[in-house]
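Worked example 3. Consider a protein that binds glutathione.
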Amino acid sequence: MIEFWTNPMSRGQIAHWMLEELGHPYTTNWLDFGPGGNKSADFLAVNPMGKVPTIRHDGKVVTEAAAICLYLADAFPQAKLKPAGAAELADYYRFTLFAAGPMEQAVTARALGWHVPEGRDGMAGFGSFDGAVSAMEKMLTGRDFVCGKTFTAADVYVGSTIDWGLAFKSIPGCPAFETYAERVRARPAYTSAKAINGTRIAATHKT
Ligand SMILES: N[C@@H](CCC(=O)N[C@@H](CS)C(=O)NCC(=O)O)C(=O)O
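Given these inputs, the predicted complex is written out as structure tokens:
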């Protein structure tokens, strides 16, 4: 059994998509943000960061949306979401960690108004926002999915990064991002995860 802690308006949607890809049963613990939810003693005992997404499988806790995607692909090989060849694995790890590290930092820094002082790009892991986005664009150009023709767990994470970035306009649109986003949004598991979270948002976040 997989236990899953999430909030519908969060990066939890990334892990939710991955869980829907697996087709394996899981239990969802919806957490509100606040002292009674993600900062409760019970949840902090599971994840001391008090952050979602978090999963527990076979007694092991996994946090970090990217790690959850990669871990579940390993733990459930029957889902065939991890490539076998060395060349594909190189892209699989590189793209996922690039999205989870430099891209995530670049987008967050921009959203929060943090500026890398002039001449200090070399010290920042993401270099600059424009540099990270342009590298991601080049990396995705000319390929259907991260590992080529076949969808993998890397596309759940990288796809979420591009999907959310375009939806919230935190990254600029370009043909490589738009066409890639269209391909990953066609996954039935993407649609079912969106539907589950949309239903939860409608039920709990009244406007
Ligand atoms: N590095 C983590 C980030 C997780 C994260 O920041 N989640 C946010 C929601 S999108 C959260 O739980 N925020 C609540 C809080 O920190 O109180 C990951 O990639 O999973």
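Take a moment to read the result before moving on. Residues 86-187 form a domain with the Glutathione S-transferase Yfyf (Class Pi); Chain A, domain 2 fold (CATH 1.20.1050.10). The CA atoms of residues 21 and 188 lie 8 Å apart.
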